[in-house]
Amino acid sequence: xxxxxxxxxxxxxxxxxxxxxxxxxxxxxxxxxxxxxxxxxxxxxxxxxxxxxxxxxxxxxxxxxxxxxxxxxxxxxxxxxxxxxxxxxxxxxxxxxxxxxxxxxxxxxxxxxxxxxxxxxxxxxxxxxxxxxxxxxxxxxxxxxxxxxxxxxxxxxxxxxxxxxxxxxxxxxxxxxxxxxxxxxxxxxxxxxxxxxxxxxxxxxxxxxxxxxxxxxxxxxxxxxxxxxxxxxxxxxxxxxxxxxxxxxxxxxxxxxxxxxxxxxxxxxxxxxxxxxxxxxxxxxxxxxxxxxxxxxxxxxxxxxxxxxxxxxxxxxxxxxxxxxxxxxxxxxxxxxxxxxxxxxxxxxxxxxxxxxxxxxxxxxxxxxxxxxxxxxxxxxxxxxxxxxxxxx
Length: 393
What we know:
This protein is of the alpha+beta class. The protein has helices at 3-98, 109-121, 184-189, and strands at residues 135-148, 154-157, 167-171, 177-181, 197-200, 211-213, 216-223, 226-233, 238-244, 262-267, 270-275, 283-289, 296-305, 309-315, 318-323, 332-338, 360-366, 371-376, 379-389. It is 29% helix and 33% strand.
Protein backbone atom coordinates (compact mmCIF):
# COMPACT_ATOMS: atom_id res chain seq x y z
CA UNK A 1 0.00 0.00 0.00
CA UNK A 2 1.44 3.32 -0.93
CA UNK A 3 1.90 6.31 1.37
CA UNK A 4 -0.95 8.09 -0.17
CA UNK A 5 -3.32 5.31 0.79
CA UNK A 6 -2.13 5.51 4.46
CA UNK A 7 -2.85 9.15 4.52
CA UNK A 8 -6.33 8.42 3.22
CA UNK A 9 -6.91 5.88 6.10
CA UNK A 10 -5.77 8.16 8.94
CA UNK A 11 -9.00 10.08 9.17
CA UNK A 12 -10.88 6.80 9.31
CA UNK A 13 -8.69 5.27 12.12
CA UNK A 14 -8.49 8.38 14.34
CA UNK A 15 -11.95 7.93 15.96
CA UNK A 16 -11.18 4.29 16.78
CA UNK A 17 -7.88 5.22 18.40
CA UNK A 18 -9.54 7.97 20.41
CA UNK A 19 -12.20 5.53 21.58
CA UNK A 20 -9.57 3.00 22.75
CA UNK A 21 -7.65 5.75 24.51
CA UNK A 22 -10.82 6.88 26.26
CA UNK A 23 -11.60 3.35 27.40
CA UNK A 24 -8.08 2.90 28.73
CA UNK A 25 -8.28 6.17 30.68
CA UNK A 26 -11.65 5.16 32.14
CA UNK A 27 -10.18 1.79 33.18
CA UNK A 28 -7.22 3.50 34.83
CA UNK A 29 -9.53 5.94 36.61
CA UNK A 30 -11.70 3.06 37.90
CA UNK A 31 -8.64 1.22 39.22
CA UNK A 32 -7.35 4.40 40.88
CA UNK A 33 -10.80 5.07 42.38
CA UNK A 34 -10.95 1.48 43.72
CA UNK A 35 -7.46 1.85 45.12
CA UNK A 36 -8.42 5.15 46.75
CA UNK A 37 -11.50 3.49 48.31
CA UNK A 38 -9.36 0.70 49.71
CA UNK A 39 -6.83 3.19 51.06
CA UNK A 40 -9.68 5.17 52.64
CA UNK A 41 -11.12 1.95 54.15
CA UNK A 42 -7.71 0.96 55.52
CA UNK A 43 -7.29 4.44 56.96
CA UNK A 44 -10.68 4.25 58.64
CA UNK A 45 -9.88 0.82 60.12
CA UNK A 46 -6.46 1.98 61.24
CA UNK A 47 -8.02 5.00 62.92
CA UNK A 48 -10.60 2.79 64.61
CA UNK A 49 -7.94 0.33 65.81
CA UNK A 50 -5.82 3.21 67.07
CA UNK A 51 -8.80 4.59 68.95
CA UNK A 52 -9.61 1.16 70.47
CA UNK A 53 -5.97 0.66 71.45
CA UNK A 54 -5.89 4.06 73.07
CA UNK A 55 -9.13 3.32 74.93
CA UNK A 56 -7.80 -0.09 76.08
CA UNK A 57 -4.58 1.53 77.24
CA UNK A 58 -6.54 4.10 79.22
CA UNK A 59 -8.71 1.31 80.67
CA UNK A 60 -5.64 -0.70 81.73
CA UNK A 61 -4.08 2.39 83.28
CA UNK A 62 -7.30 2.99 85.19
CA UNK A 63 -7.37 -0.60 86.41
CA UNK A 64 -3.72 -0.37 87.48
CA UNK A 65 -4.46 2.82 89.37
CA UNK A 66 -7.45 1.16 91.06
CA UNK A 67 -5.37 -1.90 91.92
CA UNK A 68 -2.66 0.31 93.40
CA UNK A 69 -5.28 2.12 95.48
CA UNK A 70 -6.70 -1.23 96.67
CA UNK A 71 -3.19 -2.46 97.51
CA UNK A 72 -2.55 0.67 99.54
CA UNK A 73 -5.93 0.25 101.25
CA UNK A 74 -5.14 -3.41 102.07
CA UNK A 75 -1.72 -2.41 103.37
CA UNK A 76 -3.34 0.20 105.57
CA UNK A 77 -5.88 -2.38 106.81
CA UNK A 78 -3.10 -4.90 107.52
CA UNK A 79 -1.14 -2.30 109.46
CA UNK A 80 -4.30 -1.36 111.35
CA UNK A 81 -4.98 -5.05 112.09
CA UNK A 82 -1.41 -5.49 113.31
CA UNK A 83 -1.87 -2.54 115.63
CA UNK A 84 -5.16 -4.00 116.92
CA UNK A 85 -3.57 -7.43 117.41
CA UNK A 86 -0.70 -5.88 119.30
CA UNK A 87 -3.15 -3.92 121.45
CA UNK A 88 -5.18 -7.11 122.03
CA UNK A 89 -2.03 -9.00 123.05
CA UNK A 90 -1.22 -6.25 125.52
CA UNK A 91 -4.76 -6.46 126.90
CA UNK A 92 -4.53 -10.25 127.17
CA UNK A 93 -1.19 -9.90 128.95
CA UNK A 94 -2.81 -7.40 131.30
CA UNK A 95 -5.75 -9.73 131.98
CA UNK A 96 -3.36 -12.59 132.66
CA UNK A 97 -1.54 -10.46 135.18
CA UNK A 98 -4.88 -9.76 136.88
CA UNK A 99 -5.78 -13.45 137.21
CA UNK A 100 -4.91 -15.08 140.50
CA UNK A 101 -1.59 -16.83 140.57
CA UNK A 102 -1.69 -20.53 139.73
CA UNK A 103 -1.47 -22.94 142.58
CA UNK A 104 2.00 -23.35 143.95
CA UNK A 105 3.61 -26.42 142.44
CA UNK A 106 6.19 -26.64 145.18
CA UNK A 107 5.24 -29.33 147.67
CA UNK A 108 6.45 -29.43 151.22
CA UNK A 109 9.01 -32.20 151.68
CA UNK A 110 7.11 -33.62 154.68
CA UNK A 111 3.90 -33.79 152.64
CA UNK A 112 5.83 -35.33 149.77
CA UNK A 113 7.27 -38.05 152.04
CA UNK A 114 3.79 -38.72 153.43
CA UNK A 115 2.36 -39.12 149.93
CA UNK A 116 5.15 -41.50 148.96
CA UNK A 117 4.66 -43.56 152.14
CA UNK A 118 0.87 -43.73 151.62
CA UNK A 119 1.30 -44.79 148.01
CA UNK A 120 3.82 -47.48 148.94
CA UNK A 121 1.46 -48.86 151.60
CA UNK A 122 -1.16 -49.43 148.93
CA UNK A 123 1.32 -50.75 146.40
CA UNK A 124 0.40 -53.99 144.62
CA UNK A 125 -2.87 -54.33 146.56
CA UNK A 126 -5.83 -55.96 144.86
CA UNK A 127 -7.74 -53.44 142.80
CA UNK A 128 -11.47 -52.95 143.23
CA UNK A 129 -12.94 -52.15 139.83
CA UNK A 130 -15.14 -49.10 139.44
CA UNK A 131 -16.99 -50.33 136.34
CA UNK A 132 -18.11 -53.62 134.87
CA UNK A 133 -15.80 -53.25 131.86
CA UNK A 134 -14.43 -56.66 130.92
CA UNK A 135 -13.21 -56.02 127.38
CA UNK A 136 -9.73 -56.38 126.01
CA UNK A 137 -8.14 -55.76 122.63
CA UNK A 138 -8.34 -58.62 120.14
CA UNK A 139 -6.74 -56.97 117.10
CA UNK A 140 -6.31 -53.78 115.08
CA UNK A 141 -9.47 -53.69 112.98
CA UNK A 142 -8.53 -50.78 110.73
CA UNK A 143 -5.91 -48.09 110.30
CA UNK A 144 -6.27 -44.61 108.83
CA UNK A 145 -3.39 -42.22 108.15
CA UNK A 146 -4.70 -38.68 108.54
CA UNK A 147 -1.76 -36.48 107.55
CA UNK A 148 1.77 -35.44 108.44
CA UNK A 149 2.05 -32.54 110.83
CA UNK A 150 4.86 -31.15 112.94
CA UNK A 151 8.02 -32.83 114.16
CA UNK A 152 8.84 -36.52 114.48
CA UNK A 153 7.66 -36.64 118.12
CA UNK A 154 4.40 -35.35 119.56
CA UNK A 155 0.87 -36.38 120.33
CA UNK A 156 -2.66 -35.65 119.17
CA UNK A 157 -5.91 -36.60 120.81
CA UNK A 158 -9.53 -35.79 121.58
CA UNK A 159 -11.06 -35.40 125.01
CA UNK A 160 -11.01 -38.97 126.34
CA UNK A 161 -14.09 -38.43 128.52
CA UNK A 162 -16.10 -35.52 127.11
CA UNK A 163 -18.17 -35.28 123.94
CA UNK A 164 -16.15 -32.51 122.31
CA UNK A 165 -14.94 -33.06 118.76
CA UNK A 166 -11.94 -30.77 119.19
CA UNK A 167 -8.51 -32.05 118.22
CA UNK A 168 -5.61 -31.18 120.52
CA UNK A 169 -2.11 -31.30 119.03
CA UNK A 170 1.13 -31.24 121.06
CA UNK A 171 4.05 -30.74 118.67
CA UNK A 172 7.40 -31.86 120.07
CA UNK A 173 8.57 -33.14 123.43
CA UNK A 174 9.29 -29.74 125.00
CA UNK A 175 6.92 -26.88 124.22
CA UNK A 176 4.24 -24.67 125.77
CA UNK A 177 1.74 -24.09 122.94
CA UNK A 178 -1.13 -26.48 122.20
CA UNK A 179 -2.92 -26.33 118.83
CA UNK A 180 -6.68 -26.81 118.98
CA UNK A 181 -8.66 -27.63 115.83
CA UNK A 182 -12.48 -27.37 116.05
CA UNK A 183 -13.10 -30.70 114.30
CA UNK A 184 -11.28 -33.54 112.58
CA UNK A 185 -12.11 -32.03 109.18
CA UNK A 186 -10.15 -28.82 109.82
CA UNK A 187 -7.20 -30.78 111.14
CA UNK A 188 -7.20 -33.12 108.14
CA UNK A 189 -7.71 -30.61 105.31
CA UNK A 190 -5.38 -27.80 106.27
CA UNK A 191 -1.61 -28.31 106.42
CA UNK A 192 -0.94 -25.04 108.21
CA UNK A 193 -2.08 -24.04 111.68
CA UNK A 194 -4.18 -21.07 110.54
CA UNK A 195 -7.39 -22.97 111.31
CA UNK A 196 -6.20 -23.81 114.81
CA UNK A 197 -6.55 -21.90 118.04
CA UNK A 198 -3.51 -21.72 120.27
CA UNK A 199 -3.37 -22.33 124.00
CA UNK A 200 -0.21 -21.11 125.68
CA UNK A 201 0.43 -23.08 128.84
CA UNK A 202 1.87 -21.48 131.98
CA UNK A 203 4.68 -24.06 132.08
CA UNK A 204 6.27 -26.02 129.23
CA UNK A 205 5.58 -29.73 128.97
CA UNK A 206 8.10 -32.55 128.78
CA UNK A 207 7.67 -35.79 126.85
CA UNK A 208 4.52 -37.04 125.12
CA UNK A 209 2.57 -38.52 128.02
CA UNK A 210 -0.14 -35.87 128.34
CA UNK A 211 -3.91 -36.31 128.26
CA UNK A 212 -7.12 -34.33 127.68
CA UNK A 213 -9.83 -35.62 130.01
CA UNK A 214 -13.24 -34.15 130.85
CA UNK A 215 -12.40 -30.59 129.79
CA UNK A 216 -8.99 -30.56 131.50
CA UNK A 217 -5.46 -31.04 130.27
CA UNK A 218 -3.24 -33.22 132.41
CA UNK A 219 0.35 -32.63 131.38
CA UNK A 220 3.81 -33.32 132.76
CA UNK A 221 6.23 -30.62 133.84
CA UNK A 222 9.80 -31.23 134.91
CA UNK A 223 11.31 -29.08 137.63
CA UNK A 224 14.76 -30.22 138.57
CA UNK A 225 14.82 -33.94 139.43
CA UNK A 226 11.07 -34.08 140.15
CA UNK A 227 8.08 -34.28 137.83
CA UNK A 228 4.74 -32.58 138.34
CA UNK A 229 1.29 -33.37 136.99
CA UNK A 230 -0.39 -30.09 136.04
CA UNK A 231 -4.20 -29.99 135.78
CA UNK A 232 -5.15 -27.20 133.37
CA UNK A 233 -8.72 -26.04 132.73
CA UNK A 234 -9.16 -25.70 128.95
CA UNK A 235 -12.26 -23.49 129.27
CA UNK A 236 -10.86 -20.63 131.33
CA UNK A 237 -7.17 -21.30 130.58
CA UNK A 238 -6.08 -21.55 134.22
CA UNK A 239 -4.20 -24.07 136.33
CA UNK A 240 -6.69 -25.87 138.57
CA UNK A 241 -4.27 -28.01 140.54
CA UNK A 242 -0.78 -29.47 140.45
CA UNK A 243 1.06 -32.19 142.28
CA UNK A 244 4.57 -33.55 142.46
CA UNK A 245 4.41 -37.16 141.34
CA UNK A 246 5.15 -39.31 144.43
CA UNK A 247 7.91 -41.47 142.95
CA UNK A 248 11.62 -41.23 143.69
CA UNK A 249 14.46 -41.22 141.16
CA UNK A 250 12.33 -41.49 138.06
CA UNK A 251 13.77 -42.65 134.75
CA UNK A 252 12.26 -42.66 131.22
CA UNK A 253 9.35 -45.06 131.20
CA UNK A 254 9.87 -46.23 127.59
CA UNK A 255 13.23 -47.39 126.29
CA UNK A 256 12.56 -45.96 122.82
CA UNK A 257 11.11 -42.64 124.08
CA UNK A 258 13.78 -41.14 126.37
CA UNK A 259 11.90 -37.84 126.84
CA UNK A 260 8.77 -39.40 128.41
CA UNK A 261 8.94 -40.01 132.16
CA UNK A 262 5.22 -40.24 132.96
CA UNK A 263 2.49 -41.45 130.61
CA UNK A 264 -0.98 -40.30 131.69
CA UNK A 265 -3.58 -42.64 130.24
CA UNK A 266 -7.38 -42.88 130.38
CA UNK A 267 -9.66 -45.88 130.15
CA UNK A 268 -13.14 -46.89 131.25
CA UNK A 269 -11.95 -46.86 134.88
CA UNK A 270 -10.53 -43.33 134.87
CA UNK A 271 -6.97 -41.98 134.90
CA UNK A 272 -3.72 -43.91 135.18
CA UNK A 273 -0.06 -42.97 135.31
CA UNK A 274 2.64 -45.19 133.80
CA UNK A 275 6.18 -44.51 135.04
CA UNK A 276 9.50 -46.10 136.02
CA UNK A 277 12.07 -45.62 138.80
CA UNK A 278 15.64 -46.65 139.49
CA UNK A 279 14.39 -48.96 142.25
CA UNK A 280 13.27 -51.38 139.54
CA UNK A 281 14.72 -49.87 136.42
CA UNK A 282 14.03 -52.90 134.23
CA UNK A 283 10.22 -52.84 134.50
CA UNK A 284 7.42 -50.29 134.45
CA UNK A 285 5.15 -49.21 137.29
CA UNK A 286 1.45 -48.34 137.15
CA UNK A 287 -0.56 -45.99 139.36
CA UNK A 288 -4.27 -45.16 139.61
CA UNK A 289 -4.68 -41.40 139.55
CA UNK A 290 -7.54 -39.39 141.07
CA UNK A 291 -8.55 -36.89 138.35
CA UNK A 292 -10.01 -34.46 140.89
CA UNK A 293 -7.21 -34.21 143.45
CA UNK A 294 -4.29 -35.74 141.48
CA UNK A 295 -3.68 -38.08 144.42
CA UNK A 296 -2.24 -41.52 143.78
CA UNK A 297 -4.91 -44.04 144.84
CA UNK A 298 -2.89 -47.20 144.27
CA UNK A 299 0.40 -48.35 142.72
CA UNK A 300 1.62 -51.58 141.12
CA UNK A 301 4.91 -53.06 140.00
CA UNK A 302 4.37 -54.64 136.58
CA UNK A 303 6.33 -57.39 134.80
CA UNK A 304 6.46 -55.28 131.61
CA UNK A 305 10.05 -54.40 130.60
CA UNK A 306 11.11 -50.89 129.67
CA UNK A 307 13.61 -52.08 127.08
CA UNK A 308 12.42 -51.59 123.48
CA UNK A 309 9.07 -50.20 124.72
CA UNK A 310 7.78 -47.30 122.63
CA UNK A 311 4.42 -46.61 124.25
CA UNK A 312 1.63 -47.94 126.47
CA UNK A 313 -2.06 -47.46 127.22
CA UNK A 314 -4.68 -48.89 129.57
CA UNK A 315 -7.90 -50.65 128.50
CA UNK A 316 -10.45 -51.77 131.11
CA UNK A 317 -7.85 -51.71 133.85
CA UNK A 318 -5.24 -53.66 131.87
CA UNK A 319 -1.91 -52.10 130.93
CA UNK A 320 -0.90 -52.77 127.31
CA UNK A 321 2.76 -52.07 126.46
CA UNK A 322 3.79 -51.65 122.81
CA UNK A 323 7.28 -52.73 121.78
CA UNK A 324 9.44 -52.13 118.73
CA UNK A 325 13.15 -52.23 117.90
CA UNK A 326 15.73 -49.47 117.68
CA UNK A 327 15.74 -50.07 113.94
CA UNK A 328 11.97 -49.57 113.58
CA UNK A 329 9.97 -52.58 112.48
CA UNK A 330 6.42 -53.76 113.20
CA UNK A 331 5.13 -52.55 116.58
CA UNK A 332 3.31 -55.03 118.78
CA UNK A 333 1.66 -55.37 122.18
CA UNK A 334 3.93 -57.84 123.92
CA UNK A 335 3.09 -57.32 127.61
CA UNK A 336 -0.33 -57.02 129.27
CA UNK A 337 -0.81 -56.46 133.01
CA UNK A 338 -4.38 -56.58 134.38
CA UNK A 339 -4.68 -54.94 137.81
CA UNK A 340 -7.86 -56.87 138.60
CA UNK A 341 -6.23 -60.22 137.87
CA UNK A 342 -9.03 -61.38 135.56
CA UNK A 343 -6.80 -61.52 132.49
CA UNK A 344 -3.72 -63.68 132.75
CA UNK A 345 -0.71 -62.48 130.71
CA UNK A 346 -0.53 -65.77 128.79
CA UNK A 347 -4.20 -65.40 127.76
CA UNK A 348 -3.85 -61.89 126.35
CA UNK A 349 -3.72 -61.30 122.59
CA UNK A 350 -0.37 -60.09 121.28
CA UNK A 351 -1.72 -57.32 119.06
CA UNK A 352 0.36 -56.26 116.03
CA UNK A 353 0.22 -52.81 114.46
CA UNK A 354 0.78 -52.41 110.69
CA UNK A 355 4.34 -51.33 109.89
CA UNK A 356 4.46 -47.67 108.91
CA UNK A 357 7.28 -45.13 109.10
CA UNK A 358 9.18 -45.51 112.36
CA UNK A 359 8.28 -46.08 115.99
CA UNK A 360 5.32 -44.51 117.76
CA UNK A 361 6.08 -41.37 119.74
CA UNK A 362 2.67 -41.57 121.45
CA UNK A 363 -0.37 -43.85 121.61
CA UNK A 364 -3.51 -42.33 123.19
CA UNK A 365 -6.43 -44.67 123.75
CA UNK A 366 -9.95 -43.18 123.54
CA UNK A 367 -12.33 -45.28 125.69
CA UNK A 368 -15.45 -43.67 124.25
CA UNK A 369 -14.38 -44.31 120.63
CA UNK A 370 -12.45 -47.55 121.15
CA UNK A 371 -9.60 -46.34 118.99
CA UNK A 372 -6.03 -45.15 119.39
CA UNK A 373 -4.61 -41.81 118.25
CA UNK A 374 -0.98 -42.47 117.27
CA UNK A 375 1.95 -40.22 116.30
CA UNK A 376 4.41 -42.10 114.07
CA UNK A 377 7.44 -40.12 112.86
CA UNK A 378 5.30 -37.01 112.32
CA UNK A 379 2.35 -38.90 110.81
CA UNK A 380 -0.99 -38.83 112.62
CA UNK A 381 -2.69 -42.23 112.53
CA UNK A 382 -5.94 -43.68 113.90
CA UNK A 383 -6.07 -47.36 114.87
CA UNK A 384 -9.57 -48.78 115.29
CA UNK A 385 -9.55 -51.68 117.70
CA UNK A 386 -11.44 -54.97 117.64
CA UNK A 387 -12.55 -55.77 121.20
CA UNK A 388 -13.44 -59.06 122.90
CA UNK A 389 -14.44 -60.15 126.37
CA UNK A 390 -11.52 -61.20 128.53
CA UNK A 391 -12.85 -64.70 129.09
CA UNK A 392 -13.17 -65.20 125.31
CA UNK A 393 -9.57 -64.36 124.50
